[in-house]
Queue: 3 jobs
Job 1
Amino acid sequence: MSDYILQFLISGITVGSIYALVGLGFTIIYNASDVVNFAQGEFVMIGAMSAVSFSIAGIPLIIAIIMAMMVTVLVGFALNQFAIKPAKGASVVTTIIITIGASIFLRGAALLIWGKDFYSLPAFSGEQPIHIAGATILPQNLWVMGISVLLVSAVLWFFKYTLLGKAILACSCNHTAAQMVGINVGKMMLLSYGLSAMLGALAGVLIVPITFSSYDAGIMLGLKGFSAAILGGIGNPIGAIVGGLLLGILESLGAGFISSGYKDAIAFAIILFVLFVRPSGLLGHEHQERV
Amino acid sequence: MRSKIATLLSITSLCCSIMISSQVYAGDTIKIGSFLAVTGGASFLGDPELKTLQMYIDKLNKEGGVLGKKIELVHYDTGGNPKKAVNFIKRLVKKDRVDVIIGGSTSGTTLAVAPLVKKFKIPMISLAGSIKIVEPTQKWLFKVPHTDRMAAAKVFADMQKRGFTKVALISGSGGFDKSGRTQSLALASKYNIQIVADESYGNKDTDMTAQLTKIRASDAQAILNFGFGKAPAIVTKNIKQLGIKLPIYQSHGVASKKYIELSGDAANGVRLPAAAIVVANELADNDIQKKVTMAYKTQYEAKYDQVSSFGAHAYDALMITLKAIKQAKGVDKKALRTAIERTQNYVGAGGIFNMSADDHMGLKEDSFKLLEIVDGRWQIVN
Amino acid sequence: MSSSLLKISNLSSSYGPVNVLNKLSIEVHAGELVALVGANGAGKTTLLRCISGVQKITSGHIYFSDKEISHLSTDQIVSCGISQSPEGRQVFAPLSVADNLLLGAYSLRKKTLKTKEQQTHAIENIYQLFPILKEKQAHSAGTLSGGQQQMLAIGRALMAQPSLLLLDEPSMGLAPLLVKEIFSIIKKLNEQGTTVLLVEQNAKMALSIANRAYVIETGQVTLSGNADELLGNKAIQRAYLGHSL
């Protein structure tokens, strides 16, 4: 029984790390502009698919990964320049709808480029499972978890300790005031889309050996990453990680102990309950503002 | 002003020429209607199906057509949507006045139009899998693909031969997967097999180790996965990750090179039922289906990407239709229907078809080959 | 006092079809403390927004140190040396007091406030001006009281070390005692050499510390002169200062 639970937890943490990485991408753009970027899942897909393409073309894995990240960052820039920026002054809801449209467009473009097939990359360091007290884990899972920890620390550090990070936060708090202290809000937006695209691409590259990728892989990942971010408290990088891991573990325990058919329903029911009790998410700030 | 008149004139003349030409064609062509899921979630079915129909109809027209008449394909894309399928059937029959219909790609679209097919009294050959299309038999409705039940039967027969009595079932959330699960549960006892675990997963899930951990704890002697797309490859890899040594069976849903590619080493030893077309290269030279499958494969792959069993169903449907048209010496709907029903010994890409008034599919279980993946390649078992 | 630091000529601006500024012209000389007074909706805030480049102008010119700035973006204008404490304070509520001040110096991050020491030093200067902010430096700005937020907004604007400081309604919503304190600080800042353009509804208070003032009505300057003269002007007294003066 105990090795049961351990295996469920390992599965949950692996899947949860993936959700967390995607959720982290939502956090950055949300922090810059209060916009939930529903094309975040597409960043993950584009990162994964271009890494596979470069790798198939014979480029060494590490360079292929860097190139895939650059491609995705360019897509992020383009999304900001051609879809978000022209709608400057539009409401947050309008902008969110624009990102949904952009995600459909990107999916269509991916369909044209890569077709409907699934693609995979070889695991970074083999596929020999590692045994831990009756449970098993793949080396790639460790990669996912390890890099997730690194990335979340980097993002936290960026927002907490760098002037640039604080400037991005300032843009979302108050656009006008941010301009008035001399922050080029347009540049910050561009930067945040580029950053979250890079994060998405890295997530895609990490998980493609485990989950595979296809032109429509971004939908599910985007949805789960969004749920993770909301559960943990959107805008808070630690929240995204906590939310992602929790969602992964809930799904895994749900599938293991209750019913595999209802695992999504179980997870979403719990999310709804949490949001009902704490509308700002587990680690979200209550709005504290005195005027 | 002048340009406006010119535009009007050209539009009028264009309309006239279309009307004239369509009138001329009406008598001289045989019209085959089709409604396939070329876009949307089931596009992996509709896309090769439409390509196959177009390719062979073009080829045939170049060679002079059938009974001296050209063949015209009238196609509508359903996107897999049954409501659209219903509208398209009405349009095909009433407006386009087609002689026979091939489609749809999915069981949902086929079953949705079945009452209309009966009402309009038009022969239709479906390319969908569900056994409900031909059981009970409906007068005007036929189908060519193998059923899920045949796949389950093929797998269970092999399990019985190997002496397995306890089997763990794991299946996806799609229509194909669910139907396969239902058929497997219903059929198992016939082969003295007990389903000791019945797990499921979402088709877009990325990890199935929780479900497989439960299977590991059961006393199953083999695992059967009814699934589609990338999920079965993840199941296969997860089984290896968990160190489960049980033999793995998959359904015909994964009978493509992609499955082997995605699963990597974990795919070795996996057994599955598949249509002959998947292993056309590996078929023995004296195999009765060798010629037809190689011909279709060569034709298709010369123009498009890798061949699939789905395109092959469209090929079989088209060939059965053409044979029937020749036999009926025309496209009188009644005569055509009877001719299709009398299809005998047609060696197709999917198997050998022997239809009758009680059997509107005409395939036997042996039309599936049982394959094993050995060193990343298909091998036909016995 | 010969050349003007800020010169605005024939400036017009509108929100959609509504003209808010109508060929308005003012001047601010280096070292002055100039007040803009006028009723609610006269266009005072819009004028400041135009100077900062947050509000688009429809016609006219804005010169700063003889250089036209009306086509520049807000961050470029801040770099020129104009910073603003906006109406309603608009502090970055979730960020700490110290971070708010640090961001105030964003335009100097590659110039005079590059190093941590320089930044800390500049922030210390603000703390000397507003000691309460030092006490609250780790608190998030949203938790401060209205008066403290106002101090933070002014401090943040000062962090950019501006040659022209724009203050929009610094007394709004504050208790009389606090208003007095804020205004004495503004006067002190001006005496230390910062040129100030002050927008105020509290005309009496504004005129009492200003050198000169403009009275704005419906987007135009209707009266201008030395603050003392205006303070004695009967029409002004009736319109903005109440009878009891």
Job 2
Amino acid sequence: MTNPIRTTLGHMLRLELQESLRSRWFHFYAAVTIGLMLLLIFTGVAESRVLGFTGLSRLLVTYIQITMAILPLFIIVVTARSMVGDREAGNLEYMLAFPISLGTWFWGRFIARLALILVPVFAALAIAAIFGAVKGHDIPWRHVGLYSGLTAALATCFLGLGFLLSAISKSTEIALGASLLIWLLLVALFDLLLLSVLIKAQFIPEFVIGIALANPLQSFRTASMILFDPQLILLGPASYVILDNFGVTGYVLWALGYPTALGVVFAGLGYWRFSRSDLV
Amino acid sequence: MGMIRINKLTKRFEKRAVLDELTLSINAGDRIALIGSNGAGKTTLFRCLLGHYRFSGEVGFDGADKGRRDLDMLSRVAFVPQTPPPLRMPVGELLGFAAKGSGADPAKMNDIADAMGIDLAEINTRPFYRLSGGQKQKVLVTVALARAADLLIFDEPAANLDPAARAVFIDLLAERRDASMLIASHRLEEVAPLVNRVIEMDRGQVVLDDSVMDRLKAGHFRACRIGLAEPHPTFAAALAEWGFTAQNETLFEGQIPAGDTLRFLGTLSRYASLVDRLSLETDPDGSDAGKE
């Protein structure tokens, strides 16, 4: 007897969405992401003026800078231990005994998680836009759209990294340790602080800027700045290299495309490893 | 034609071979009890069949080597693991997933759950991991038996079940005459009435492959005499349930159905220290003459 029944991508997406919507990590993440925007609104950030930014632009700049710190950490820590945790617990042994392809299982989880990670961020940006409209501020729709895109690119990058770590780690502890270490490296070591030290140590500027461009967190940060500060005055001399080589539009496109591509490559490597190793 | 043909299946963890060039055929209609001590390789064999592990050697299904995790094969195999997974999803969601993703029949799931003594409506919204060990096992057995599978792979399926549920479970398995079975169990006497083949594994190899049905045919009986070292009322009562008659306080005689030999020996094993003499003789003409 031939039984054509399969677990489809639709089944998998639904399962993962339901699973994540129930989980504490999502509730906490959504509360922080949306709560942060509400906190900024109610503390009057939009009414303040810093370095020439005020109104909704000021609110968005502040929000996006904070998001940059917490979003990647959250994604990578939660994702890195997801599959390896399921493997340790025995969930994979049972669920993968159903007629479901590994591609459907892996990419179904990836897509569902990406959607769930982005929804609260987009909701927060929508709240900011509504707040701006109510207060009579000019709504920088282009910036809201680009911030949404940059956030999606950053989320894809770290989600892919998380899936890769989860696929190659032998245990939850290793996955968690590795994810924290990578986040720390990207945030602290390859941040502007290190770059300034490298410049002081007279490394060639292209090398230093190359490191900055390769760091998805840094490209996100610079692109978020460039939207409101097209001359990159805040960035200092490094801005000359960036603007000479990319221009504003080119750099924004880089900041959108590079982390997304990196995330997909990471996830692809994770899938390659996942599908070619013992599953349980 | 063999339903599953396993040829020189080897699985190593680092340098240790847990399955060592294991060769085996599982035919359509085979109902196999897979026995062996801990670490013999039973669970590893299941995981290789289900495509959970990479391995060397060949596993062919219906005459074709379909490679690891062939979805056609997986759609024809129902599996119950040794330890229920701590799934966070509600029971209803798991049942829905099994129905849509593997074709488990919802009406059949209700009937099987009822027979197992579990009310699906009552636990429908409860997270699976919050159920008791026995409830989890019943739900997993329900899902497996409601699938139109050609092969049932059960890894210690009755370990968490209470005696009543265990008896129902055995009856439900016995009703599934359409499916082949591969059941790992430490309680051979429990699954003995179900199976027609016993395979014993040791250190990754098959050390015994006994087609029980060939010699223990239904309707045939074996004459048995048991002498005890000392009188034992409980043992005497157990033997009385098997239809034995007491010649005196320490000597018993009776006939046991040939098909129940394994189950009988399982019962006997609990009182092994009391048994002084034991004879078990097959009727030469294989008939049940003399059995009242």
Job 3
Amino acid sequence: MYFESLSAVLQMDGHGGFVWSAYLITLVVIVYILYAPRRREQRFLRQLRGQIRRNSGAAAPVREES
Amino acid sequence: MWSFFHKLGSPPWLYRISGSILRWLLPLTLLALVAGSVWGLLFTAPDFRQGNSYRIIYIHVPAAVVALAGYYVMAIAGAVSLIWRMKMADIAMRACAPIGAALTFVALVTGSIWGKPTWGTWWVWDARITSMLILLFLYLGVVALYEAYENKALAAKACAVLSLVGTVNIPIIYKSVDWWYSLHQPASIKFTGGSTIDPSMLYPLLFMIVTFYALFTCSLLLNMRAEILQREARTGWVRRLAGEREPG
Amino acid sequence: MNTLSTPVFCGLLLRRQLVLGLRKPIEIGNPLLFFAMVIALFPLGLGPAPDTLAVFAPGILWIVALLSNLLSSDGVFRSDFEDGSLEQLLLAPQPLYFSALAYVLAQWLLTGFLLALLSPLFAVMLGLDAAAIPALAASLLLGTGVLSLVGGIGAALTVGLQRGGMLISLLILPFYMPVLIFGSGAVQAALAGASAAPYLAILGAMLCMAVALAPAAIAAGLRISVDA
């Protein structure tokens, strides 16, 4: 460990603001590129489930192509 | 060999296999991201000229490297989809563009933040920065073209052509921007050349580059899974999948 | 039915495009008028001091040439796409590669070529040193060829879209940047008293590469757009 205390880690000899904001922005982007496709997939599956349920709820004997 | 290609072209197979890859790759990548950041932020000595601000290198350089490599991945996927008409390749190509744009954005923003304490300014028209900015425009162009087409199969083809044109052009753009900068270079600023890096700083950097490649792969697979489901919405296996996951 | 040989077919296509262009002189005049008007904006924005203008003149002339080329390249295939003759062209037995080249050549003759011929006039208005004018005209002559070819790729990819106009500039402006760098570099070199030949040689090399590769991309783009 290079730094002695937590405040030294946060300060980084006056460069802390730059370093930590760079890491924070990167973190936000990484979370976004991992979370956005996941959410798209979940939302699509939810929509499809709703669609299937509506079709089966109608209990139509003839399965129509949507 | 050929059966492998046929499997690669099969959406359900790719969906299943990507799920089992992500199950271990995603946690591993996140762990490595944390480990690499802690290593770079806390366990390396500061640079003797730039002090602690150089620690941004551990995200800046990996993001830039992977952003550039991502363009080539996109172009190769585009070529595969144009030549062999492989549906999975154009899904991969389409997935590359937003991830590449996001990583290019990270490289630009972190570079700019790094520039402030180092050179005293947020932005300089340096050769590398300018090239990265152009790369961002190239990525956004592909995204814009894809969104403009109604028919997504044609959109993917058009983007494949555009990304191949980009692949031919990127070396030209890089070389000419490099040359342009050497012509106009202000005497006081010189970033390139003579940069030797100590092994104690190099190892965490290499570690982070590998981690960012893994991150790119994870996001690519996640994007492809979402895209596969949407394109295959009418097939039986997707409908069964939606049924299986029904919570109630 | 006997088919025309490829050179004859392309010659006819070129003549058709030129005749169509010449029938509407306003359409030819538009990019040139645009060029003149934007040039007139710079003294208004930067101030009329001749020294300042002369310093920026190489960059200004090249950027404006680039923009006027961009505007005109949007329309290369538009009217033929709308009336269906593009579809006929795709069905023709002659290779699309050469037909695309004929289209771009016609567009270049009516915009880039005329622009290069008229550029000395605007260069004088901006106070560019007379020594740099041959370099400007030569660099524009070579450079606009590359711009037309690259612009053709953008036009081919966006011709089937409703709102192609803005999109095409997003797609192809990044590819215009090397041409801008070396084009204005040639003029600046001539201003500084050095030879512009190396820059012109690089522009020539870019033109050769664009002639070899761009028509293939244009052909692929046209096939996609006509499918849409």
